[in-house]
Amino acid sequence: MSDTEIHAPLLPILVCPDPKLRRHARAVTEADREEVAALIPSMFETMYKAPGIGLAAPQVGKLLRVVTIDLAPEKTPQPIVLINPEIIGASEETAVQEEGCLSVPEQYAEVVRPARVKVRYLDEHWQKRELEAEGLMAACVQHEIDHLDGVLFVDHLSSLKRNILLRKLAKAQKELAGRK
Ligand code: K1U
Ligand code: ZN
């Protein structure tokens, strides 16, 4: 990376139990075009730096229905922007995927979700698009759309598993704050 490369500003990632993560994000309209155009590069920069394979705008405190995804930034970067994404089809068959979350740092759990989904969205040029996803992409896109509705991956776990994970998170966050 050269010294002259221009970077978009990094955004602070909210951590659970921040109440903003539980709010519903609103649909983006034409009136938001400038704000969204500025937000997207900052979301990618923040996601790559974290590092993560997805990021939803509410995780950086913006209650807008905007998501960035890149499943393989190290190998062959394939950045995807989803504006106002909607799941328009989901398989009855389910799949288990280990999930993490930048807002639930260093905690991982197996989550059961539909194995395949069809998503309708606007891309970064505001063109209507559809995406059929399976495997990690299906899990990631569902995880990110959940963020737009104030849902976290821990909500898909049994209350026992969720409580254990959230207690571990609180302990780790307390230790981190003590070191600062
Ligand atoms: O939304 C987020 O919090 C990002 C999250 C997305 C996600 C991961 C796994 C399954 C479903 C959704 C992450 O990116 S957690 C970090 C992570 O998975 C990862 C980080 C670096 C390299 C590879 C993966
Ligand atoms: Zn997440």
Describe this structure in words.
- The chain is an alpha+beta fold and 180 residues long.
- The protein has a 5-stranded antiparallel beta sheet with strand order 1-2-3-6-7.
- The chain has 3 helices and 7 strands; from the N terminus they run αβββββββαα.
- Strand 6 (116-122) and strand 7 form a beta hairpin.
- The structure holds ligand K1U and zinc ion (ZN).
- Ligand K1U binds at residues 51-56, 97, 99-103, 139-140, 143-144, 147.
- Zinc ion binds next to helix 2.
pLDDT under 50 segments (min length 5)?
Answer: none
Overall average residue pLDDT: 95
Give the number of DSSP strands: 7
Looking at how many chains there are and whether they match, the oligomeric state comes to single chain
What's the helical proportion of residues? 25-40%
What proportion of the residues form beta strands (DSSP E)? 15-25%
Structural class label? alpha+beta
Question: What summary fits the major beta sheet?
Answer: 5 strands, antiparallel
| End-to-end C-alpha gap | 30 Å
Bound molecules: ligand K1U, zinc ion
Spell out the helices and strands N to C.
Answer: HEEEEEEEHH
What is the number of helices?
A: 3
Which shape, going by the Cα principal axes? Answer: globular
Radius of gyration: 16 Å
* Widest sheet, order of strands: 1-2-3-6-7
